Amino acid sequence: MLERLDQQLFLFLNSFHSPFWDPVMHALSGRLIWVPLYLVIIICIGIKYERKFLIIVLFIILAATMTDQVSVIIKNIVQRLRPCHEPSLEGLVHIVNGECGGVYGFVSSHAANSFDVSFLSLLFIRKKWFTVSIILWATIIGYTRIYLGVHYPLDVICGAIQGSLVGWGCYSLYILTDNKILKNKPYFMSTS
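^ thats the sequence. predicted structure below, dont judge the formating
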């Protein structure tokens, strides 16, 4: 029942396509477009946390690695076909540039990674304008995956949850490390 509802919602959301939006959504979903945003986030964190920055970068790398690897493990365990590979949806899915991706799509790695970045960075930056902007950005990235025909809504939602939990967990681990281990070491002291 839930799977059927997910397919129907997917077909509805995937149907809103046009020649104008196809290249826009394809570009937004690409990984290279994220690089400038990631650099700005890293610079903002570096400015705010100064001497703690290198330790924070280690936690960012940990979060990114965990998010990506966990989403791949889940895909291989669940083995839910992407909509563009689903035989019962053949001819109904709008696919952009003929790109479908791997066979399995649950959970969306794009959604997991973008929500990991969102939650981890908003916890470090803690500015309302940034929080709203970065969550909106992650949501748009999630929608692009549905638009492009490569993920169902539940793939995106569960990927977003997974990424958010990993981001929050790695931030919590950083705070624990900072409070218990790093506080007494002058090198890691910061004015933040």
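The chain has seven helices and no strands.
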